[in-house]
């Protein structure tokens, strides 16, 4: 069987350093909240909808509190207070606030016991809905059987959710297991989630709760047709990380891109904001049984895939520790990596094999997410198709959890129907043809592949120990991740971070923590 | 056998002027004889003959993918074609640095960005980052380039603000996302704003991306455009030589 011989002491050292890094932010998680965390709480309390000029109600409620410097107690407290005072539901209160008829912080104070009791009832109601969605998913997998490994993951990205639904159903019929709806390119930097069904986007389709619902329905339909539970995924990233996680939990998405550091490095979102938001969003995902995926592939598209391979390993280990803090178990941690080495490189395939095996062996229980060649995909679709086959070969041989299929038109356009179908045909052919090859082969412990993997592990360990010593924020400020410099107080969204005051309440966080035993 | 070279050409399969082309396309039909005939007639209507529908792939849901070989009846006279290309000589990193030192005598300042909604930095990074792409170092590596990479999702206003603040010689804009021609809209907006603010003259405006050609760039009001397969060496050489020529003219 394909197995590397790695130094256990190095693996332990690397994990310890990563744990130290993640644990150095307990003060942030305990003492701070953000505008999107508060909007998430509102959404979970049942507040949804937008005004005629398309402003989402959760944003208007938070703006009201923020402009009167009342956010420190948390949005839940004020909304419940007003709901009791006026004998209305949280949704009705939000509508009144949106209309400008009341200021939440001016409403007469109600009994704290009553407020707690109301929040208890409302949060139980929505948590029980999320739990039901989780149970429904588990039931479907019991009914149709477990997901294939590697699972076939393809994207749809027409910009029009109704067109996406047609393409997603077609992809499922052709063999896809997981459908991702790529988001419109500008969405990560919006500090609100658009409302309603959308039919126009750029490079993708907006993530909205209605769009989630439409796609979920289409996939449920096709699941019963193909006798496989077809999973749906989206992106809990950017400035609305926890809100999107909550929407996904409510509408039964099955996976969610949810990286701890991606927003900081690749979208220039403030480091404090990102770490804070990922903590709560991952907790929602953990509670909802949603498998998270991380974005380590991005390190290799911005830097050299051989030289910077250790940053992938280091990021995976940090992501793992942050995920554990939010209650995510290894079987729901789709840590990421990618097949991005220059195809002209001699023995490039051996390097890819070494890196893929290293990831698999460091995280044996995780449904590791393997990303296809993109950087060296060109307009030569024939060559790209061949590179995708080599990528599929490694994916099957090393038993990756999720294979994000490469498209031969990667460098040209968002995939056409036939592009996706050819990609699935490619993957099915390779997966089936070499199904049990991995069990027949072994790695020479002194050979090139093992030596390479051991080297990357060592580099990652030393790097993590250095970051643990100097601190994650300092390391980011120096550009030690992905050659990108990100200062602690720079980037977008810092003004949305605030310190919790005495009496702050987030009923969901407390209940999820109790349920997840963290 | 020798052949008289003609400027009128046709695609070449394995015989001169056989016109053979490889085609593939999807039709909303079922993968049956009717679907196949529809595919054949479509190609015939497009002016193909000798049509062989060699691949029929069922994509379910009433869609079929066809793969075909056919001979085109069309031909093209290449002596009647003119294309706009970037014609400056391409120099190595060292040659470019020396060229700048000799003919310009100071470092060239370049500001680069992916503008507006575009979040994909792969293009601008390939040209500007130290590392470069495919063994061609980026502008940051050049001794005589002061390269400022603003990254992704930079508004036109922010980019022009930087142009105003620094003594900028050239602006580099990358556009990767092209859905619904968003790249054209973004590029046009930048040039219009630059003109309105009096920043267009005296500064080189260069754009790049998978769907950008030099011809398109000129049409949009840019000085040059670089498509797929362009490297930092192409862009650096173009900027250095063009600026030097402008300086000589100005004197």
Describe this structure in words.
- The complex is a heterodimer of chains A (518) and B (251).
- Chain A is of the alpha/beta class.
- Chain A has helices at residues 8-23, 26-31, 35-44, 57-67, 75-86, 90-99, 112-144, 161-174, 209-226, 241-251, 262-267, 271-288, 297-302, 309-325, 348-362, 381-397, 417-433, 437-440, 448-470, 472-477, 507-516, and strands at 32-34, 151-156, 178-181, 231-235, 255-257, 291-293, 333-334, 336-338, 369-371, 402-404, 497-499.
- Chain A has a 9-stranded parallel beta sheet with strand order 7-6-5-4-3-2-10-9-8. In chain A, strands 1-11 form a two-stranded antiparallel sheet.
- In chain A, helix 3 (35-44) runs parallel beside helix 10 (241-251) and helix 10 (241-251) runs parallel beside helix 12 (271-288).
- Chain A is globular and about 75 Å long.
- In chain A, 56% of the residues are buried.
- Chain B is of the alpha/beta class and 251 residues long.
- Chain B is 32% helix and 23% strand.
- Chain B contains 7 helices and 10 strands.
- In chain B, strand 8, helix 5 (182-196) and strand 9 (204-208) form a beta-alpha-beta unit.
- In chain B, helix 2 (93-103) runs parallel beside helix 7 (232-250).
- At the A-B interface, helix 8 and helix 17 of A face strand 2 of B.
User: What is the H/E order of chain B?
Assistant: EEHEEEHEHEHEHEHEH
For the secondary structure, the number of strands of chain A is 11
Whole-number radius of gyration of chain B?
24 Å
- What fraction strand of chain B? 15-25%
Q: What gross morphology of chain A would you assign?
A: globular
Mean pLDDT of chain A: 96
Question: Main sheet of chain B?
Answer: 5 strands, parallel
Structural category of chain B is alpha/beta
Estimate percent helicity of chain B.
Answer: 25-40%
What low-confidence regions of chain B span 5 or more consecutive residues with pLDDT below 50?
none
The multimeric state of the shown protein is: heterodimer
| Number of strand segments of chain B | 10
Helix content of chain A: 40-55%
Beta content of chain A comes to: 5-15%
How far apart the termini of chain B lie comes to: 57 Å
Low-confidence stretches of chain A: none
